[in-house]
Amino acid sequence: MSTRTFAGGLWSFGRVIDRYATDGYGPPIGTLRAIELAGLSGELTALDLNYPFDEGVTVNDVRKALADHGLTTTNITPVIYDRRFRSGSFSSADPATRQAALDLAHESVEVARDLDARYVKFWPGQDGYDYPFQVDYATLRRHAIEGIRDVARNFPEVTFAIEYKLKEPRNRLFWSTAATSLLAIESMGVDNVGLVVDFGHSLFAKENPAEALLLTHSMGRLVDIELDDNYREWDDDLTVGAVHLVETLEFLYTVRQLDWPHPLKLDLFPYREDPGEAVRESVATIRALENKAARIPLDRLREAQAAHDAMTAQRLVRAALLD
Amino acid sequence: MSTRTFAGGLWSFGRVIDRYATDGYGPPIGTLRAIELAGLSGELTALDLNYPFDEGVTVNDVRKALADHGLTTTNITPVIYDRRFRSGSFSSADPATRQAALDLAHESVEVARDLDARYVKFWPGQDGYDYPFQVDYATLRRHAIEGIRDVARNFPEVTFAIEYKLKEPRNRLFWSTAATSLLAIESMGVDNVGLVVDFGHSLFAKENPAEALLLTHSMGRLVDIELDDNYREWDDDLTVGAVHLVETLEFLYTVRQLDWPHPLKLDLFPYREDPGEAVRESVATIRALENKAARIPLDRLREAQAAHDAMTAQRLVRAALLD
Amino acid sequence: MSTRTFAGGLWSFGRVIDRYATDGYGPPIGTLRAIELAGLSGELTALDLNYPFDEGVTVNDVRKALADHGLTTTNITPVIYDRRFRSGSFSSADPATRQAALDLAHESVEVARDLDARYVKFWPGQDGYDYPFQVDYATLRRHAIEGIRDVARNFPEVTFAIEYKLKEPRNRLFWSTAATSLLAIESMGVDNVGLVVDFGHSLFAKENPAEALLLTHSMGRLVDIELDDNYREWDDDLTVGAVHLVETLEFLYTVRQLDWPHPLKLDLFPYREDPGEAVRESVATIRALENKAARIPLDRLREAQAAHDAMTAQRLVRAALLD
Amino acid sequence: MSTRTFAGGLWSFGRVIDRYATDGYGPPIGTLRAIELAGLSGELTALDLNYPFDEGVTVNDVRKALADHGLTTTNITPVIYDRRFRSGSFSSADPATRQAALDLAHESVEVARDLDARYVKFWPGQDGYDYPFQVDYATLRRHAIEGIRDVARNFPEVTFAIEYKLKEPRNRLFWSTAATSLLAIESMGVDNVGLVVDFGHSLFAKENPAEALLLTHSMGRLVDIELDDNYREWDDDLTVGAVHLVETLEFLYTVRQLDWPHPLKLDLFPYREDPGEAVRESVATIRALENKAARIPLDRLREAQAAHDAMTAQRLVRAALLD
Questions:
Q1: Contact C22 A25 (CB under 8 A)
Q2: Of A170, C14, C300, D5, whose CB neighbour count within 10 A is largest?
Q3: Could you tell me if B224 and B186 are in contact, meaning their C-beta atoms sit under 8 angstroms apart?
Q4: Contact in structure between B132 and A317 (CB atoms under 8 Å)
Q5: What ipTM describes this predicted complex?
Q6: Closest Cα in chain A, distance from residue B265 (Å)
């Protein structure tokens, strides 16, 4: 896997904050400095960029910073989850907010073009609800689908991807699982909307990440892949393989079967760690696991799988992983 | 809701057994005695019948027993999850087992006709896997879908329903969530296959049951509804409302919006309780909650929901439920 | 329960922020304004106050603001979980940070005295770890226990309470469950340290909150009680009874058995809701449930419980709650 | 770790049954045949034996069968969780059932002596409750503690161990977590009762297994160690390391620090797998992981842990595990 490259989320290099450490886990870090830090990690070739950038930072500034650090743009991710969109973006109860989401999406398409990004990503983390009886589910669904469908129709030559997640910050998100999202996308009648499958999101959505990845790919809707880890109940965004090494191996084995041509993206939140270290540790783990995956004897594994023979499959995988 | 009627699963009245109390939680109870006990509960008008019946018990015996106790048949549920199918039914690795599942399905259609059942239910509880790398997900999916599609095509005038469940007895089941199942059903190209939405299954699949119910109905795939309760991690099959009263209320409120014309079915496993008591307690709770649901002021709730106004929705629901 | 009073956390009235809406779910709100908002909620008689206050706000300012709004102080909660303590307070790897935690604790004792607070609360939300192999558990345990023990010994006439929580913001916290915390407190050899049992924390720690409350009380370690709700996997801090009404009823029934003499405290994070509304909705629900709890026939329930008779207990509770 | 030996639970070699495959996952297998199969696995030196044995099988028969297959007895586990004890053993509401548990415990002590077992294990899997309001928690606690305390006092020279578990078959068990159990044991005032720490039980109790192991050991209460794996919500009893390889490594690393002198016990339920294969696969994984654990540079890891330095710890562990 010598040709494997990696992308990162710009957020991994910025200041992390949460509801307790409201003064942040470190000092503020601007867009351009975060790009520089991403470059300095030494392992990334491309970035997932939140948009808007910091006030006063232009697309040209970003392009230059990326070039300076040998980075390209995988995608633009419009920030449809900050205060303005705290109660939803495309599915907000407020038409003006829905329009603001559309406007920001359109703007993001322009930025994506300017930066040669492969796609525009929507992570509708505020599109959902928190309480029983809070919303009419049919209306929520309609708004959530129509908003993204409209953007997709406006830019038929642009690729869009939705990153699904079961919860957080809302207790329940509309774009919750691979299957829920695929079902909704199918109803759009467009062919330029797909999914980002995030290993960690899949894990705490109680999916098997490898199976979700394959399902998405088999429907022609796989746009990007993100890696991280957690304890199966929340989006802890730990370094890759920190906890679920076997399922990460199976995920990477599946990536290998798909001949995935793009960089693998890391989705990390190093609250208390150096982001460069977190990236390097994740990349080293992925590289090691991809080497292990390459050692699994395919014919024998397929034979075992054809028989649903768990013990033989375990033995083959263990030998590749631990011997 | 004076016209509301209730159905039950025959299993609730039989002997429960598990991996620890391998001598059962009570003495063996035959098919006909279980029907009698169901009738004696005093609250059921119809039953979900596992098939095959006990050895020596004929369809005529069952018909007579049902009639004797004023019961009809909601559906036949072929036992595609016992020892013979321990590694899968329609998706077994073994072609002979897949054929056995088809054969039993066909037989069940005949029994369903004989007993005037509304539908045939598949609960493919052994169709899945337990270990990472154990199966090829594409093959599993193909088998799982093709088996039921073939049955459905053979009997285009019969209604079939799949009861999805995230896990148990397999650690991971193919028919895991509403969305996963709907996506698979849509790919069948048949219109006589739908879903049974079980409140408890939905809960521990990390769905919101009311939302899953509505999604299934909106796609024209809602065949039946089952109620029970649990602690969100496992299919505990407690009496209705024992733990999640608010979400049960929202579920029943949704049932009411749908003008659901069929009996509500109970899916209980009273390991240590008298099944008649468990049924009566569940029915009393449902009746009370349906009365509460009828007290929610629809216009004001819809107005609150249109604004995603959680606090007003909470207030209206609390007033209806607790005042 | 006409004499029941309620306390609140000051944080419920401040600006909530998280890792996505880094610009906050609303505008900044200062200490004194938050106190005013707490008073305006109309339902609180006392507050849990984070310390330090905003820069420039003195204890006298706070005392006056409280008095102006008819509020007293239940307790002071030193902020041992912000950036300075991001990797732990009493159990930090850094001796200077451990000392800073001690210093802040001592300062908080003075503030608590000045404001006539009943106790000082430690919520060591950063005291734990995130990754396997990250810490030596024995050392972590020793530091966590020694720090609070030392404070308690320095102020033998002051009451201290630890609010346990399974996780967040660390993936794993040392003070994780009631039993873990009681075991650690017992090893301190002091009698002025106890626990705050938070209903929601208990729920997602997979405890039964009523049982945890009783256990803590039976060991003479119950210092305070907090209420809220969540979906059993995370500290969602929803309004009381929003999801788990039955377990909240059992919790309040237990509070009643204990003749709890203090205000019940609300621990809410109304990200997108008006905090006053969230408080009033929670109080109204508690009041309604306390009335329901008073209707449960004690003798008959105790008789059922003596027989472990779940169905009779369910019937009695349902009658009290829903009839 | 060439001297490492392994024990197994006899149940792993018997017929597994559950509430769906009520005809079992295979044919019935008697006590003596199960012992034979355990021996034939080729990896076990000792067994955890459920008692009573099959009807007609004497202690002498068992002793002979063990000897024939080169096996010894780690412990006797009285079956206090079958139909007779379906609503509890030591904590049953029924005094006669509590007495029956005591009687069986006493009988088990005799059998343990006859078979030179190191200890008697209680797994009170029916001692708990299922519904809110079902039991009085103080009474349940008193009975649960007194029963085992009485047995321990009657046989002060015998070692007893409790295997804690959060749930199953009861929805909530009294002996739920390490800390809960240690707290209860401390209150007994005896020194011959300790715990069995089961990796899988610890995992779905939301503990960190290595931390729970160390806590138990540090209090002088660690009697035995069991290994298996699951998906963090249920006692799936998968082969060791099948899912949670990193935490299993940390657990075995901790075992190594303790210089644990006894065989490591496997607690597997190979529903659909050959038990011999499941044992061999588990043992091979443990051996591989113990070799990896031995490669971790202790000084450098301890230094990283002293600084709570997650990234360095990750790097050291990854190097040992995957390089």
A1: no
A2: A170
A3: no
A4: yes
A5: 0.97
A6: 23
